[in-house]
Fold these 3 entries.
Entry 1:
Amino acid sequence: MKKIVELSNVIKEYGKSSNSFRALKEVSFDINEGEFVGIMGPSGSGKTTLLNIMSTIDKPTYGKVLLDGKDLNEFKGENLAGFRRDNIGFVFQSFNLLDNMTVRDNIALPLTLNNVRHEIILQKIDTFTKLLGISDQMDKYPVELSGGQKQRVAICRALITDPKVIFADEPTGALDSKYSSDVLECFKNVNSRLGITIIMVTHDSNAASYCDRVMFLKDGKMHGRLDSNGNKQEMFTKVLDMLAILGGSDNELL
Ligand SMILES: Nc1ncnc2c1ncn2[C@@H]1O[C@H](COP(=O)(O)OP(=O)(O)OP(=O)(O)O)[C@@H](O)[C@H]1O
């Protein structure tokens, strides 16, 4: 199995040395290509810090991160931006769609900015919007969509550049349970049909139950992992049990 993300001894310190705070403490793990991985843990445990470091948004203070075999420490400025554009898709809790653009133009944006040919953009939009069940929403504006539809548009926009990995930070955090499940089914589809690796930070045990593997952080350190056998209900129960051991119920972690 090919490794798509490799972290070794990653430490992240915020602030100046005399008054610094260590948010990640020697974190090491690998993620295989095609995995759907969840990251959970109490508030302040370092989940977003970890996601930002894996996704090139931030750099570790010490340690090494490889993405598709490339050492992220070696990319700077324009090269880093190019590497991010070519390899990584992002999905955020707040959707981050542009309100004055149609759904079609929102999805096309990463390719329009790259001067990709119009016919190619339309072809890709057609493929991905069909996969995500939003092909009839193309002429609408974000304000005319439900939260679940907005997040599906955001997933399409993340897919349009053919990323190797999609990083999602609390993608269901702003959705009620019905729309959350729709969005998670979409992620599952994208993962299983297109083979794209998905790495998702979540507080939601139901969201975590869709993952192949869930890794738990506490106080900046890895505190175990759970692997799914494909049974969502069993995974959900195992996740709840693990959260209880970590010192908080599902609700307390919100
Ligand atoms: N830019 C920063 N400067 C200083 N400290 C920071 C910064 N960003 C995060 N931290 C601290 O690092 C720790 C980890 O933060 P992080 O946002 O990664 O946690 P989290 O697990 O994602 O939390 P939550 O679930 O509440 O979003 C927290 O104690 C936080 O206060």
Entry 2:
Amino acid sequence: MVTVNEAKHLIVTQAAILPTETRKLGDSVGYVLAENLNAPLSLPAFRQSSMDGYAILHSDITALGTGLKLKGESKAGQTDLEILDSGLAMRIFTGAPVPDGATAVVMQEHTRIENGMVFIDEFPVPEGKNVRRIGQQIMAGTVALTAGTYLSPGGIAFLQGLGITDIQVCRKPKIGLLITGDELLKPGEVMVPGKIFESNSGMLAAALKQEGLGEVEIGYAADDLHATIEALEKLVEKNDIVLASGGISVGDYDFVGDAVKAVGADTVFYKVRQKPGKPLLFAKKHEKLFFALPGNPASSLVCYYEYVLPAIRKMTGRTDLFLKALQLPIKYGYAFDGERDEFLKASIADDHVIPLDGQESFSIRSFALADAIIYLPVTQNKVAAGDLVEVHLLPF
Ligand SMILES: Nc1nc2c(c(=O)[nH]1)N[C@H]1C(S)=C(S)[C@@H](COP(=O)(O)OP(=O)(O)OC[C@H]3O[C@@H](n4cnc5c(N)ncnc54)[C@H](O)[C@@H]3O)O[C@H]1N2
Ligand code: MOO
């Protein structure tokens, strides 16, 4: 049996970053950049107006109400503009090129047009007012984004704006799920007394989907050693990570531990000093990782968030591996006996964290209502209302 921290340490040190691949920028959200990218052009690439109004020479405006002769127009997308001379104003729109010679743009709300003249009701007009400078966001040739950057929609937009179409990212792991248990019915099957509609496949597939891993191979095995080995072998062959659900405790029909050995994986640890999720097993075969998650749904999901997710993130090149953690006051007092650290399904409201009803490991309804997990180490087995506790935010 290892501690929570030992288990986490073993997992993130054993998980290795996957090789890189080239992807279309538009298909790269949620991936991690595997190369340093320099800006091929400056942004903005030319002086742009940030307002609809009039381009002028700021030095022409010597008093409130200075009149300038209106000459020409610059609209967005314009490529051929004449130089603006002193004494003139050019009609201009947001995003349009500021003509050479002009040193500022006055927004149209601060102007009046009378007889072909533009009167500027603003004084003084500072140089550069309402003009986006060349390279104000980034200069050509400088570092745009560095290897290791997680690509958010903002990152995609930034690189697309630089004209970049293909990038090098860390590959994401292929994941296989093995669902074990004789009592399990798949969605749509006919309910029979003694059976249950299994839900761990949907739960884990959904959690993986949220992490950008939409294609998951799912295998099923009855509570039988040979069936479990066979299903496991298939999944291990094609995937980087295999998650098994159920069959990892000490019952006569729990075969996953033996099957893991039979496929040649080395167990790194079995059992973590925690509740729920004690019988978690972590094994490795070369670079492939294997997690045997306990069948109880809440145990399985806690183990996914606390251990599997960091491994996935490490393999995809991310450096923020764990759920975001913060300290919050707990709404109600909570106490527990025993030697195991506890993870509680919880929700956050009014700057407090609330432990939810239904903390049993079979109870998944509380997870349906949770947006966080409270982590209470055994050293903190009695907390009073208002005490600070460690809270892990679920990904949303
Ligand atoms: N004598 C002992 N018994 C148990 C111990 C122990 O230390 N000594 N540990 C308990 C703990 S803690 C857990 S957690 C469970 C883990 O059991 P398994 O991983 O072997 O899981 P199963 O026995 O197959 O199933 C447990 C529970 O979960 C339900 N289940 C299984 N698969 C699914 C699924 N795909 N979808 C929904 N629900 C599922 C299953 O029907 C059982 O109710 O062991 C304790 N026992
Ligand atoms: O580890 Mo179990 O998950 O306490 O029910």
Entry 3:
Amino acid sequence: MSIKETVSEARSQWMNGAGPEADIVISSRVRVARNLAHLPFPHLLSREKAEQVIRAVEAAVGNEELQRRVGRLAVVRLNELTPVERQILVEKHLISPDLLENFERKAVALRDDEVLSVMVNEEDHLRLQCLLPGLQLEEAWKLVNGLDDGLEATLDYAFDEKLGYLTACPTNVGTGMRASVMLHLPGLVLVNQIRGVLATIGKLGLTVRGLYGEGTEAAGNLFQVSNQITLGHAEEDIIANLISVTRQLLAQERAARQALYRERKEQLEDRVGRAYGVLKHARVMTSEEAMRLFSDLRLGIDLGIIKNIPVSLIMELMVLTRPAFLVKVTGRDLSPVERDVYRAQLIRRKLSAAQQE
Ligand SMILES: Nc1ncnc2c1ncn2[C@@H]1O[C@H](COP(=O)(O)OP(=O)(O)OP(=O)(O)O)[C@@H](O)[C@H]1O
């Protein structure tokens, strides 16, 4: 898939609703931060030096041995894309919102299936990431590690014997790794336990972020849980800790869902039914309302209350109804009110098509 195809398709492998524990774990991500030796960190780079980093990455991913091991990654400079296309890459979670700042100096290398990518000149020279559906942190780490080895064969990384990989922000020094899971936790929200659960997570060396990462709000009852510390722990230990906490969260979420279904079945079915009804018939819809209703509908699918809607459609709709995708679909700039009208229209069309399949 070329980058142009990537930005015209809302679906991505990581959101296909497959993978272990996919009823609650939407996706797993592992990223590592790497920098090239003898060059200032990105925020201090001149335009020429930033281009030098991009060229070095281009050459490294073009290496035949790397391609044999991890596949082909296409490098795209962000200034080759339109503003809408750049925003779509954020909406698909393939790049972070930060990569859009000073985008003239930045690039992304993307594997065809969108599972592996490298952000170039974000906070660090390289951010290697792998995104997979469901709970697949070990697999994601294996893929990132393979890509890292392949790049390190030709790139000279900034590395200190004592500290490990050197990074722009001290919180990333060491392994440079952040592992995360995106969890759908409507049960814990509905039984009012979410605050307590999230507070406990902080005590276990983990942190909770919103849908689009650092500094963003949780929406649609989706929470991103990741490790806080990168120094002094082996990558495998960081991942094992996150898996173990995720499993506890899964048990708590499932218990909450069961309790709701046992004790408040009618209210739950009513909530799901209303969400489905509004999504099917509304004529104007804000993205906040859509996210709330998608969450209820998804819970209904997971509990078997709604049978004819594939869970992957909900994720596709979450991306498709974001502002940049709506502009792409309609082919023109939209006012906020027009956006709400098109969003509702698109949701109606997609849901009725799914019902007829
Ligand atoms: N498990 C996940 N599934 C899908 N997308 C994710 C997941 N974890 C993170 N992301 C996406 O990756 C991007 C970056 O997230 P975030 O800011 O949390 O991490 P980071 O940039 O690696 O960390 P740091 O703040 O240390 O630089 C965001 O768009 C976020 O939505």
